[in-house]
Design goal:
11% of the residues lie in helices and 35% in strands. The protein is mainly beta and 151 residues long.
């Protein structure tokens, strides 16, 4: 199963991001969406799991989007939250923690648990890269990789 992970679009969904996410069976957006059209475009590619980011909180269109989501993906429990500071202490059954917010891409294995931040796919911030992540989920393997959208 190919899963596309994106965050911090801040209202900008680049063609390069759409191309990288093409063929995903699921797309996960870790918040700071920016405008509802972003979710419409992503939903045209695949089903979407999404949380609000701190910049989405005041937006009326994002009112029904959760701040934290737990779901199952390819037989693994996933926790999705915008800011890693909001990850709850109890992660007993969670195999994958997905966050955004920092704009810094991160793949970090802590034992058997994957912490993944796809970085920012929206407007460039400072000198940070513009990225998304792809997860290949098989029954016996989980292979994350970062995809740089711009040089």
């Amino acid at each position: 199963m190919k899963v596309g992970v994106i965050s911090d679009t801040h209202g900008l969904l680049r063609p390069e991001a759409l191309a990288a996410l093409e063929g995903s069976e699921l797309i996960i957006h870790a918040g700071d969406i920016g405008k509802p059209e972003i979710l419409e475009q992503l939903t045209a590619l695949a089903p979407v799991q999404v949380v609000r980011g701190n910049n989405d909180l005041a937006a009326s269109w994002a009112r029904d989007i959760p701040d934290l989501s737990r779901f199952e993906m390819a037989g693994r429990r996933v926790l999705l939250v915008h800011d890693i500071a909001d990850v709850p202490a109890d992660l007993d059954d969670i195999a994958i923690v997905i966050t955004g917010h920092s704009h810094k891409p991160r793949i970090d294995w802590q034992g058997e648990r994957l912490f993944l931040n796809p970085g920012s796919a929206g407007p460039r911030r400072f000198k940070l890269p513009v990225t998304v992540a792809l997860l290949e989920c098989a029954q016996d393997a989980l292979i994350p990789r970062l995809v740089r959208l711009l040089e």
